[in-house]
Structures are given as C-alpha cells and as structure tokens.
Amino acid sequence: MTAVLQARELGKKYGKRWALRDCTIDIPAGHVVGLVGPNGAGKTTLLKLAGGQLAPTSGDITVLGGRPASGPAQLAKVGFVAQDTPVYGGLSVADHLRLGARLNPGWDAALARERIGQLGLDPAHRAGKLSGGQRAQLALTLGLAKRPELLILDEPVAALDPLARREFLQGLMEAVAEHELSVVLSSHLISDLERTCDFLIVLVDSRVLVTGEVDKLLATHHRLTGPRRDPARLPADQEVVSARHTDRQSTIIVRTEAPILDPAWTVSLLSLEDLALAYMDKSAADLEVQR
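^ that's the sequence the OP posted. Answer follows.
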C-alpha cells in the first residue's frame, strides 16, 4: 500500500518541552484518515510538520515521497486548512480566488468558481463579514482548488455549529469522491469522523495507540459485560484495551480476531467513538499507574 505520510521517531521540541516525541506512523494513500486524541497529544504539531510549517527536532517525515515544503513541486502536492480556517477579513471572496491563482501553479479556477457559486457566496463580499461556516467553506475551496494530492485539515469544524459542520463535511466528502483525494482530518468531535473517515489513528501523548481501517478495527474490538473478573484471566489472544468494574460486574473492551466463546460474557459491538475513547482511557490509566 502506498504511504501518503510516513514518520519515524518524529519529534518537535519547543524550548525544553516536547510537543511531539518518538512518533512513528504510516498513513496510507486513498483514505480519509481521522486523527484523534486529547488536547496536547501532538495532533496539530504532527500536521504542521507534515505541511512543512514546522521543521522536526528529531526523526524523519516524508509526505508523498518527499520532504515537506522542500520545493514548489512538493508544496503543490499538499493542501492545508488550519484550525481557525484562516482567511483574510479585509479581502473579498474574489480576492481570495485571485490570490490562490497567483500562489498555486496548479490552480483550478473553474473548480473554485463553481464551488463558490454552489455555496451561494457573493464574490464581492468581504471574508470578514462571512459567517463561521462560510469562512470555513471558503478556506476549503482554496484548499481544493489547489488540486492537491493530499488535503490536511486541522480541526476545521471545531468552532462551527452543528448545521455548518454537517455542510462542511458533506462538501468535503463530495470533493473526495470527485477528485480522489487523500485526506487527513484531525478532530476532537469523534462523532463527525464516524460520517467521514474510513481510516483511524489515535494519538495520545505523541504515541500512536491504534491505527487501521475503520471497518476492520470495529470488527475486531468487542465490549464484554459479565460477572466481575480479573482481565488478566482472559485468553491470551484477547488484548485488553480498557476495563471497568463494579462490585459485581466487569465491562472490558478487548481486541481479538478470534470468536469469543465464553458464555458468561454478553458481547456487543463498539461505535468509532467508543473505540477511540477506550484507547484514550487506557492511556490515561497507564500514565496514572506510572505516576
């Protein structure tokens, strides 16, 4: 499988503080990848390293086979929409499209005009007067009209209301289907990722805890509910992700490809949100034990 992004022991340090450390990751091409994790996990730092806005302190990273921001050809391959969906408040929508055409040699003016028309945006309207959802759609239009091979979006819908989030993500998925983009989308709103992503990465404390195609991850993770039991007594092929107990009952999330035959357990499937939160909960518990 062709990798759209590869990192090996990647790290970024600000002064004495590591924002990302020892991160090893492979992101395959042809997917919409959901990157999730708690605040401070290193998601934004990783994406800025991939986009070339930051240089690594340690380790290596390649994007589409090249070093990020290593030259015009490499820059043209990657579109980036930052967390605050940046646009210039004093410039009109049309000004943004002209700027995009000037800065990007592969600019698709027809795509940009068509999308602005579909969104009902007035080209003469200043970006500073647009709603949050409209600014996000304008930023997405600029990223798409660049015609990148990889589109990176760093929590682009975090500040939007539910309707604006839905419209943004719907527009993104339409563009992915039409232009066969690879996408890496970070978000703390895991419910939004369930509608868009087919590949998941959970990043906690700069460590990749789980990665893989969503369908396969959901098929191999199970919630076991039954009489209280020590997780260490489970079969060796059942990897314990998280466990919670009451006086009488245990609820354990396991990863296994083997059938669960113990009749004492009630077995249920997980949602994507359940799965991601289980790994984040596991990491928090591990850190507490280390302290």
